[in-house]
Each structure stands twice: as C-alpha cells, then as structure tokens.
Amino acid sequence: NNFDTPVTLPDPEVLADSKRRASWIVYQLKLRGTSLAAIGRQYGKARNFPGNALRRPWPLWEYRIAKALGREPQELFQSDIDPTGAGQLPWLVQAVRYTATESVVLK
Q: What pLDDT score was predicted for residue 68?
C-alpha cells in the first residue's frame, strides 16, 4: 500500500449519509494504519476530538481527517456544504484559514 496516494472516493450516496461516511472514513484510516484517536494525539488533543467532526461540522478536524486520507475536506464532507453556494456554512471560510496554517504541519 502506498499511503501517500489519496483514497478512492466511495459512491456519493455513502458520503451523503453521515453514518455511512463516518464508517467509511474510520475504515480508510484503519487501512492506512491510523485512526481518529491517532490524529487527535498527533495534534496534542484528546482522542475523541477528531470523531466529533464526523457528527457535526468542525472545519479544523474535517481538514485534518481529509488530509490524513490524501483528500480535500470538501470531497469528504460534501453534505456540510450548502449546495447552492449561497450562505455557505463557515466550513469553507474556515477551511481556507486552516489550510494556510496546517499545510506546513501536515507535510
């Protein structure tokens, strides 16, 4: 396995269903030899911090989870983004801010 290669995205129906998406993310992390708890520890936080992003929008942890899978947050957390583009959740605005600060740490 090449862990630098981005994961292949599942069917859109999986990503649209928050429970199925969470299960898929946990499975993909496990295949890469890591976990949500490991991502939390990597950033000096309690092991349950990243898991909260699977239950509710949390841009920083969504970003970190996506990067651990070699993807962009908007690819994995599509249902958290307003499809009209108007009145987007703070997700995209905050993700841009986090991208600038996290890119150095995650490389």
A: 94
Look at the block and give the residue holding tokens 């499975």.
27
pTM, entire model: 0.72
CA gap 68, 103 in Å, rounded: 12
3-state per-residue secondary structure call for the chain: CCCCCCCCCCCHHHHHCHHHHHHHHHHHHHHCCCCHHHHHHHCCCCCCHHHHCCCCCCHHHHHHHHHHCCCCHHHHCHHHCCCCCCCCCHHHHHHHHHHHHHHHHHC
State how far the Cα of 64 lies from the Cα of 66, in Å rounded to an integer.
Answer: 5
CA distances from 103 to 10, 19, 40, 62 (A): 25, 28, 17, 14
pLDDT tens digits for 76-103?
986 555 555 444 455 555 555 555 555 5
